# Entry
Amino acid sequence: MYAKNNKTLGGNKMAITVLKDPMIFKIDTGNASYVMAVMGQGHLIHLYYGAAIDGARVEYLAAERGRASFWAIPAGDEDSFSTDVMPMEYAGQGTADLRPAAVATVDADGDNVTDLRYFGYEILEGKPDNPGLPHTYLNQGDGAQTLKITLRDAVKDLYVDLYYTAFDFSGAIARWTVVRNAGAQAVDLTRVMSASLQFPGKDYDLIHLHGAWAREFHVERTPIAHTTQAVSSFRGSSSHLHNPFAVIAAKDADEDAGEVYGVSLIYSSNFLIETDVDAFDGLRLNAGINDRAFCWRLEPGASFATPEAVLVFSDQGLGEMSRAYHKLYQRNLARGKYRDQPRPVLLNSWEGVYFDFNAEKILRMAKSAAQTGIELFVLDDGWFGKRDNDLCALGDWVVNEKKLGCTLHDLVEGVKATGMDFGLWFEPEMISPDSDLYRAHPTWCLHQKKRAPSLGRHQLILDLTRKDVQDYVVEAVSRVLSSADIRYVKWDMNRNMAEVGSACLPPERIGEVYHRYILGVYSVMERVTSAFPNVLFESCSGGGGRFDAGILYYMPQNWTSDDSDAIERLNIQYGCSMVYPPSAMTCHVSAVPNHQVARVTPLNTRGNVAMQGSFGYELDMTKLTPEEKEEVAAQVEEYKRYRDLVITGSQYRLISPVNSNECAFMTVSADRSTAILTYVKKLNDPNPPVTRVRLKGLDPDAQYRGVADGKVYSGRTLMNAGLNMPAMRADFDSVRMVFERV
Ligand code: DGJ
# Structure
């Protein structure tokens, strides 16, 4: 035995074991083991990742087998040893391994080979920082160990540090990679993955979240084939189309059983999660920055750190995996004062009045909302510059007092007088061609100087690779936030990127713009959020266009979708809950007919569905009937009574809405004393069949009283026998049932 570091803290048995001859590295996370070995001429080979195993000597799992002579054999290796066949832990491009590589480099001599061999390792207590990038972190009392394995390309004198953090409070493994150029000449990094994984066999499915504006997070499950499949974004943000998250699932894995491997990137720009099944049924997964148009110049002495990838293995299906992500992201990724606090119930002005408002109208809405118990009024787009539509003024963060009829300070005080706090919308990363800012600084946007830029929603994107532009944004947002008692900010971002260039970068660094942009965004967000620690920040990108783990590090909640139709939201929230905690997901009750799909759903169901996450309203309160207002007041009271469960509870998916007429989900408090079950039926049936739902996550030995009917049930009986769902009264009807331990 070379080294062994065992730790049992917080109930999770975590250990990093290193053995010699051959070198073997084993990471135990409690429920899972991850094993690698150095084999052949210094190749780092992946041996195993899955349910916990005894011992570490499993090098037989990578048994060398003779292959047809076509396969290239690295110089010096045995004839039977082809890296094109072996499960390589982190493969370099241009060597004998011809599958999709984890890293690719080229130097000034045209050497496009990255041949990585084992160089050394370190075991670090805790988790090293990855400055400038969002990452999981340790709270006081949390334990973790990090294994750092260093590989080296001897010709380029290039070092690649692979980091693996195991936590004592979570079965997750956090991975990232740092490339260091110790050579004498610059090297261009054209691909660098955060993590590469190998699985034996081809019998897996790929589960991912796809969509579009207003229908984000749709879950899709496809067989993994003998080809390269990718979930990716090339839009400059993580995007509505694909989320930076995927699951490799055993064919028989479902919500409650079977082996699944989650891969989540803590990153908000162009990303790639690709799978590739080789000729011998070895499955490789690469996850990291999308290498499309990516090229990062590493000068001698420079280094490059990738974003973090968080791996979660579960042998109890998707539900267990999701709860592990929720817990980790809730308390070890999201930050700030509001991280653990129940979120205020808010009223957002957007769908209520869009651009058409003044102070008088806002105060009427606020007064009406305050009467129902709503706690925060959010003034959305339209309060600044000449912004009466989406054609102009982004960048001109000066309050339009003429439109409001008063100062922002007076408006805020007016809203506060109703008993509510005040919040404000910004879109800080954008610039309208028709704005004072653009007229003053026409080169401050991302652009290619020989070409006319494409507009998206009539706007351009500020070049946040530049420090002067970053400073402008920080200063402009801070000035407004300091001018009045603003308690909440909605930070929006409303277009995809095109003609991505910067006036300040030399041509050889053009491949760095996307990544430098998001580093700029992270830096601006860090500066603004730390300057205003008492403000609740909510991220948005036309709904869920940049709802990812990267942004969650700066802002603890995210507007999930511009579609708040309760029925579409079942799919959206179901998919979102695969990886992101309920507290991160903001959900509003909006007016009917719904503005996106024109569907008319009962207020009761709109409330029940929105209560799954951080709750609010988005409609003109002054137009509600007295009965509707009473119902809203009852919903707000109900939400407030149980809202701490959204932060600290565990969520269970009971019936998937995908290709189904029904949906059910549950939240159970951390001490299992309270459970809330929500059941929704899309279209009602005549003379309906009975749906029985088995509850999850309860204390089997406890008795629970149904708050509505007063009946007492055993936890075990509710979980094993279940409950019959009541007959629905109409289409889109629903029921919310609360159970409290007696
Ligand atoms: C897009 C957001 O998703 C909406 O909620 C709203 O804030 C608009 N932008 C405002 O322009």
About this structure: Confidence is low (pLDDT under 50) at residues 5-11. The longest helix spans residues 513-531. DSSP finds 14 helices and 39 strands in the chain.
